[in-house]
TrEMBL record:
The keyword Membrane applies. It comes from the Bacteria. The chain crosses the membrane at residues 48-67. This is Glycosyltransferase subfamily 4-like N-terminal domain-containing protein. Keywords: Membrane, Transmembrane, Transmembrane helix.
Length: 296
């Protein structure tokens, strides 16, 4: 997104842990913004701490602040924490604009007096793929978070001895040792992998699967799969269908529908739809960029 917006991309990281990590990154953020003399600053939410620092420094340096809000940056903790959501909205109101990925999120923020603009993620350029030597598999893009139908994933995998199911992400935070030992052989858990290996899993998969229980969430796996010209199955939501149309397959978040969606995806050729979507989508990104700056 930084390249599309012609912005400097600055990522600050540290080996420090806990409170000292925040102190270190806040100091370095201050130095970057002081020395950069930027007219416009983009900050990603999450992190809420980063957004709070950017809102504070905006008062001193006078830049325009645009917050790129992921779903968790619109409704932290799935909206359950009243205090956290109040703090989040307080900060978002002090930005000059807040980028969201769809009209539902925009309407939610506008109802809370936040200046929001829709700007969907650009299609990513994946790393040169490196194969992990796996075959005949569905690649399940998973962060093992509470908005994912993980139980349904596992249930379907147990029913499908004709396919392997390769899951991304840190599975250790979900399974106990006993549960891990009881999983069938067709469930593969490589854990976190390098970028080139991740790209290899996307490219080598028969189908990519990335579902969410959120009605207003556009998942990263959709963009990644389509960028690599791969079939992807998404949750059957309005925001997904409005954006991706015939370039993806859709399912309800239950095992019966997911099984049928996998079968449909395996036997259906949608290469032409994917290519057409990519062509149209890249053209719309230019207009979306202009809309972002028009809000300032």
């Amino acid at each position: 997104m930084a390249a599309l917006l012609e912005a400097d991309y600055i990522e600050l990281s540290t080996t420090k842990k806990g409170f000292s990590r925040y102190v270190e990154c806040i100091k370095r953020t201050f130095k970057v913004l002081r020395n950069g003399h930027y007219d416009v600053v983009f900050a990603q939410n999450p992190s809420l701490i980063l957004v709070a620092v950017a809102v504070f420094l905006k008062l001193f340096f006078g830049f325009k602040l645009i917050i790129d809000a992921h779903n968790a940056g619109v409704r932290p903790k799935e909206g359950r924490s009243v205090a956290l959501n109040k703090v989040n909205l307080f900060l978002l109101k002090r930005a000059d604009a807040v980028i969201v990925t769809n009209e539902q999120l925009k309407c939610y923020l506008e109802n809370h007096n936040v200046n929001a603009v829709v700007f969907t993620d650009p299609l990513p350029s994946l790393a040169k793929p490196k194969s992990l030597g796996l075959n005949n598999f569905v690649f399940v893009i998973c962060s093992w978070s509470e908005d994912e139908p993980i139980r349904e994933y596992i249930q379907v995998a147990k029913q499908r001895d004709d396919l392997n199911f390769v899951f991304s992400g840190n599975y250790k935070k979900y399974f106990s040792d006993t549960e891990l030992a009881s999983l069938p052989e067709n469930i593969k858990l490589p854990g976190f992998v390098a970028e080139d290996e991740y790209a290899g899993l996307v490219v080598d998969a028969k189908v990519v699967l990335d579902l969410t229980t959120r009605d207003d969430c556009l998942v990263c796996g959709a963009y990644e799969a389509i960028s690599a010209n791969k079939k992807v199955i998404l949750s059957d939501t309005k925001v997904n269908k409005d954006l991706f149309g015939d370039a993806a397959f859709y399912t309800k978040n239950n095992s019966t529908d997911l099984n049928m969606a996998i079968d449909t995806a395996l036997r259906t050729d949608i290469d032409a739809h994917i290519k057409q979507f990519k062509s149209d989508y890249n053209a719309t990104q230019v207009n979306a960029k202009q809309n972002v700056f028009a809000t300032l």
